[in-house]
Amino acid sequence: MNKKVVLSVLLLAAMSSAQAADPLSAWNDTAAKNAIMQWVQNATNQDRSTYIPPDKRYVVFDNDGTLWPEAPLTFQLQFAVDEVKRLAPQHPEWKNDPVLGAVLNNDLKAVAASGEKGLMQLLAATHSDITTEEFAQRVSQWVDNQRDQRFGCRYDSMGYQPMRQVLDYLRDNGFKTWIISGGGIDFMRVLSQKMYGIPPEQVVGSFSLSEFSLTEDGTQLRKTMKGAFNDDAAAKPVAIHLFMGQRPVAAFGNSDGDLAMMQYTAANPDFKTFGLIVHHTDDKREYAYDSHPPASGKLVEGLTVAKEKGWTVVDMQKDWKTVFDPAQCALKPGN
Q1: What are the CA-CA distances from residue 76 to residues 11, 21, 61, 308, 331 (Å)?
Q2: Range 44-53, long-range pairs (CB < 8 A, 24+ positions)
Q3: Which GO terms describe its molecular function (predicted)?
Q4: DSSP structure string for 258-319
Q5: Domain assignment of residue 6, yes or no
Q6: pLDDT of res. 53
Q7: Using CA atoms, how far apart are residues 24 and 265, in angstroms rounded to an integer?
Q8: Based on CB atoms within 10 Å of each CB, which residue in 3, 165, 187, 298 is the most buried?
Q9: Is residue 118 part of a domain?
Q10: Domain harbouring 194, CATH code
Q11: Cα–Cα distance between 104 and 311 in angstroms, integer?
Q12: pLDDT in the model for residue 7
């Protein structure tokens, strides 16, 4: 083996070792990365006044726009749109419906103009009157068969790599990671374990009540639109109390819809907490928006409060080396 080959092997080994030693290797060495690591070090060092006992290390994450993209549509809304088109041959009456017909005509502006009432109708057509098992199968089939139109990637490969590393880093240091999101609880639970290592019981989202019944084969839960709970804005602290039973010590979000969750976390009277907001500033590798998002994720008040509270604001363009894991989701030429 000649000297050049030996040097190359040693260099590659050194690079691999450095990456392994850096749990946040997808982050640039900026203030945001340093803030995360410093807080974790302070929270886990028993010799410091900032120490947090392991049984209190509960951390909450929004999902849409914080762990995966929410533009131009949230994944769940894109799923609903695709489901309407898939199921349309069984429902010829849909073409005459103002909302469902607009979906079939690719008129998403008309769908958006229909507001919450239209959204609920879209969800009723695609998320209800089926068993929970059938719904999970439909989501899995959608993930297997559909690709993001801009990036050409599987949806389950589009978790933000820097945030996935934060999740792993926190868990490696004894923290319990939860999703508290406005997305549908049953939709996210299909994907959370594979994408983020978060088990279904630690996923909290919007939901409607299911109905239990006995069947010839055993039992079933059937999804309905009854008792709908929208896990967004002020409802997030309510959901945290209901499902977690204790106040978190850190919160990660990206929009004004996450503000109440972050304020609730920051007001924890027992520990020095941490807050982080992902600011979408990268229109080349992802999307750039705050006050005028393509679909959801408006961020105005959150930026102001973050400055007042000393929360970390992530500039996606400057703070992240990568957005998606290139081994799973390589950008198309031109992106």
Answers
A1: 44, 36, 17, 33, 22
A2: 44/173, 44/174, 50/271, 50/272, 52/249, 52/271
A3: hydrolase activity; metal ion binding
A4: GHHHHHHHHT-SSS--EEEEEE-B-TTTS-B-SSS-SSS---SHHHHHHHHHT-EEEEHHHH
A5: no
A6: 98
A7: 23
A8: 187
A9: yes
A10: 3.40.50.1000
A11: 43
A12: 46
Q: Which tens digits make up the pLDDT trace of 95-140?
A: 999 999 999 999 989 998 999 999 999 999 999 999 999 999 999 9
Which structure tokens are listed for 170?
Answer: 């926190």
Residues 3 and 246: their CA atoms lie apart, in Å, by: 59
Look-up of token digits 């589009």:
158
Among 182, 196, 189, CA closest to 234: 182
Average pLDDT along the chain: 94
Distance CA 3, CA 196 (A): 42
Gap between the Cα atoms of 312 and 278, Å rounded: 9
Phi, psi of 323 (to 5 degrees): -100, -55
Q: Which domain holds residue 107?
A: 75-145
CA 325/CA 285 separation, integer angstroms: 12
Tracing tokens 């590798």 back to the chain, one arrives at 285
Residue 84 CA from chain centroid, whole number: 23
Structural tokens at position 232: 């967004």
Do residues 188 and 85 both lie within one domain? Answer: no
Residue type, 43: A
Buried b (16+ CB within 10 A) or exposed e, 36-55: bbebbeebbeeeeeeebeee
In this prediction, residue 330 has a pLDDT band, given cuts at 50, 70 and 90, of confident
Task: For the chain, give the longest Cα–Cα distance.
Answer: 74
Q: What pLDDT score does 88 carry?
A: 98
Please tell me whether the overall predicted TM-score, pTM, comes out greater than 0.90 for this model: yes
Tally of domains in the chain? 2
Q: Are 69 and 63 in contact (CB under 8 A)?
A: no
